[in-house]
Design brief:
There is one protein chain. The protein is built from 16 helices and 17 strands. It is α/β, with parallel strands linked by helices. It is elongated and about 100 Å long. It starts with a helix and ends with a strand.
Length: 470
């Protein structure tokens, strides 16, 4: 029996191992080329650079790009835009690399710090990220301390688990910080840290860890070959188009455009002008949509909601004038679509963060405030102006005015209780003729075709209020 067991063991064990060996794959899985995209950040950091980066990252996410490389050559710029760019980089699901091609100073250093790796061109320089005023002047000491503390906290949050990066970038922000790593004094108090490619590549500690740089490459092609081998290739080089550049700047004044657009719609209700104010208002609101869509901040859904709101508004004007409910629904849908269009949603975002709507709500709210203030000023001063008197209030019907012997600038007499005739359909706005003069009028309820007899019941800043005569 023992011999049989030994014989079984001698035969079974090699078979078992042989089975294991047979179960192993005999061929390796094909290695697919790494898909990489280059997004240039080669201007001053501001809203145009932010919009370009955001569009590129969103498109890369939609196309399942593996690696996004930021081609950095910037002297710095707006800290607010830099933080927004850092947030956008953090949302990208793939790998991100910053390539410092010449310089990434000030806000450019923040953007580099947010990526997964930082590579340098041989002559690349990074650093000097202290906060200054928009004019480049020093900030008062108390405010400087507050801002520096905030910036350092922001960088710490963005660089957790990335070696010495948090300490190094902090030394670029705070001139009072002393940077001593592994017994080497890299920066003393009273100066800001800036690093060359060689200095950023120095290793410290055990195991040796690069100070900041993952590597040095002559160009992006060389970077890809060093990092991924010969399999990597650049899919696309992003660049702004002329229309996108224009839209980027239009977006910066979107609250003003919103305010003027809403004011145009308001004036179309108050002062019917053959659609002039309404068309102008809709065109301005369309510009807001255009700028948002080109920058990749919205899809087609907000425009569809806006169109539904516009239809409700037109139904109020032409089908059920005076009902107010369609107009109220239309205004709510239009304002809601504007907020939606300006919100920054990302591909594959699992849930909607309410903070996404804060800035759009502020922009639309500011636009409404501008419209209300300008509208109040127009209501207060426009009826007394030469332009308004020429355009709406005192224009006369030629033949009737001649028969009555009245001049175009005739002063409007008390007309309450007088009857007149509808010249253009009242839906609910239009024109009526009373005593040989033509006036802008609003029907209190419903609509009235041309030729209907009406009675003047009140005088408003923008014309007459009338009712259908009994």
């Amino acid at each position: 029996m023992p011999r049989l067991l030994l014989l079984w063991f001698a035969l079974a064990v090699p078979a078992l191992f042989g089975a294991v060996e047979i179960a192993k794959p005999t061929t390796s899985r094909p290695h697919h080329p790494v898909r990489a995209v280059v997004i240039p950040v080669r201007t001053e950091i501001g809203e145009p650079a932010l919009y370009l980066l955001r569009r590129g990252l969103k498109q890369a996410a939609q196309q399942n790009i593996d690696v996004v490389i930021l081609d950095l050559k910037t002297p710095g710029g707006s800290g607010e835009s830099a933080f927004a760019m850092m947030d956008a980089i953090d949302k990208f699901p793939g790998h991100t690399i910053a390539f410092v091609d010449d310089e990434a100073m000030s806000a450019g250093a923040f953007i580099a710090a947010a990526t997964d790796e930082i590579w340098f061109a041989p002559r690349g320089v990074i650093g000097a990220a202290a906060a200054v005023t928009a004019q480049g002047q020093d900030i008062p000491e108390t405010m400087r301390l507050k801002i520096t503390s905030f910036l350092r906290a922001k960088i710490r949050a963005a660089t957790q688990g990335k070696g010495y990066r948090g300490e190094v970038i902090s030394a670029m922000i705070d001139k009072d910080l002393v940077l001593n790593i592994d017994g080497h004094l890299l920066k003393k108090s009273g100066e800001l840290l800036s690093l060359t490619a060689t200095e950023a590549s120095q290793t410290y500690g055990e195991p040796p860890t690069p100070l900041l740089a993952a590597g040095i490459a002559d160009d992006i092609d060389s970077l890809l070959k060093q990092r991924y081998g010969e399999t990597a290739h650049v899919v696309e080089q992003f660049a702004p188009t002329w229309s996108e550049t224009a839209a980027q700047y239009l977006s910066s004044i979107s609250p003003i455009l919103l305010g003027l657009g809403l004011l145009g719609l308001f004036l179309e209700f108050k002062v019917p002008s053959s659609g002039l104010f309404g068309i102008a208002g809709l065109c301005l609101l369309a510009v807001v949509f255009l700028s948002s869509y080109v920058q990749g901040l919205s899809g087609h859904e907000p425009a569809l909601v806006f169109a539904v709101g516009l239809v409700c508004l037109l139904v109020e004007i032409f089908v059920f004038p005076g009902v107010l409910l369609p107009a109220l629904i239309g205004v709510i849908l239009m304002l809601g679509s504007l907020v939606w269009a300006l919100a920054d949603f990302w591909p594959g975002q699992p849930s909607v963060d309410l903070h996404v709507f804060l800035q759009p709500l502020a922009s639309v709210g500011l636009g409404l405030l501008i419209a209300i203030v300008l509208g109040a000023m127009l209501v207060r001063f426009l009826p007394k102006s030469w332009f308004f008197s020429r355009m709406v209030l005192t224009s006369t019907v030629g033949s009737s005015a001649q028969i009555a012997g009245l001049a175009p600038e005739v002063e409007i007499r008390p007309l309450i209780g007088r009857q007149g005739v509808v010249l253009t359909p009242l839906r609910p706005f239009g024109q009526v003729e009373v005593d040989g003069n033509r006036y802008e009028a609003r029907l209190s309820f419903g609509s009235a075709p041309a030729g209907t007899r009406v009675t003047v019941v009140a005088r408003t800043e923008f014309g007459l209020a009338v009712e259908i005569a009994a």
